[in-house]
Structures are given as structure tokens and as C-alpha cells.
Amino acid sequence: MFETLGSLTASPWIYALVAVSIVLDVFLPVLPSGVLVITAAAAAAAAGAAGAAGPVPVPVPEQVPDILLLLVIATSASVLGDMAAFRLGRRGGARLDRAIARSRRLTRAHERLGTALARGGGALVVIARFAPAGRSVVSLGAGKTQRKVAEFLPWSVLAGMAWAGYSVALGYFGTQWLGTQWLGTALSVVALFAAGALAAFLVRRPPPAAATAA
User: Fold this and answer.
1) Rounded CA gap, 53 and 69, in Å?
2) What is the rounded end-to-end Cα distance, in angstroms, of the chain?
3) Secondary structure of the chain: what % helix, strand, coil (to 5)?
4) Which DSSP letter does residue 53 get?
5) pTM here?
6) Which of 90, 118, 193, 207 is placed for a possible disulfide with 143 were both Cys, Cβ 3.0 to 4.6 Å?
7) Going along the chain, which residue ranges are E strands?
8) Cα separation of 162 and 154, whole Å?
9) Chain centre distance of CA 207
10) Nearest CA to 127 among 119, 115, 138?
11) CA distance to 57, 157, 169, per residue, from 166 (Å)
């Protein structure tokens, strides 16, 4: 899998692939958008290390992902996907209402999100960005609860920057530290999933007031 993704990083289409994957994974959380970002960042780190390897010539791909451009694209695509889901949540109608009502987890998440945004604290939006399907629940929930764009958008931008920065840093610095692209990519993906598991735990945990009352 990593070899296939690695070959894609040598193509200028990697940016479009990353952007489309990130936008769509708010609706299809199974898409490997984080893996794509990490792999592209790892390829950039590996190419940089090869170019600075010394007197021994090392082949370097002609197309190497630019780290800053990758970071900007990943952040922008994340916000764009969030806002698409946000709009869908606002206009979802009775079908979305029924889908939410059938899930106790979705109902609780939407209630928590509404309370957090009403108090001016959207840290939940940032945390949920790392959780599997958390981005979908938060973005749809913010739209469904009729939150204002000004309440949701700044937190979506911060969440996108945090997630993109973490993913790019994992791939880039992990590969530089370990010195091997495939190992750096593999361990970075594990670290990304670990952050997702922690985020999922924090999102599901009841707020302090509810825990005290219980």
C-alpha cells in the first residue's frame, strides 16, 4: 500500500488527490486522507535527505511535494469539506432529523456541540477533527443546530490547521528522524490513528457537569 501511495507522490496530481480526499472524507470517513498527507510529507523529507546525502549521487524524483503547499492545501480542503457538511446539515430536513434521532451518540454529540459553541468554546470542533467520523458529526451537527457561520468557521479553520500540521509534521519529521521513508510513513500512520483514538475518547466522554451530576 505504501509503495503505491509513494509512487503517487512523484506526480503533480498528488495535490489534487489530497484535496479531493480530504473534502470527501467528511462524508466518507473511510477515505485515507490522513495517510495521503503523511505519505506526501514523508516523500518530501526523503527527497530532501537524498539530495543532501553527500558526494554519492542519489536519485531524487523530479516531482517532490512542497511541504508548505501541502499544508495549505490540506488545511483549505479540510475547511471546505467542513463547510459543505455544515450547509448540508442546515438544509438536511426531516431525513437528517430521523437519522440523528435513531442514534443516541449523534444526539449527544450534537447537544454537546451546541452547548460548546454557545459558550464560545469550540475546542470540541478541534478535538473531533482527529476522531474517526468526528469531523462528520461535528460539521453536520453544527449546521443542524443552526449555529452561525461566524461561530463555527473559526474553529473549523483552527481544526484544519491543527490536523494538517500534525499530519504533515508526522510524515516529514518522522522520516527525517528514522531515516527511512517506509518506516517513517508506517509509524506516522500509527501515531495518527493513536491521536484519533484519544480524540474519540475525549469526544465521547461526558462533560464535567454531567459527570458530576451522575
Assistant:
1) 24
2) 46
3) 75, 0, 25
4) S
5) 0.80
6) 90
7) none
8) 12
9) 23
10) 138
11) 32, 14, 5
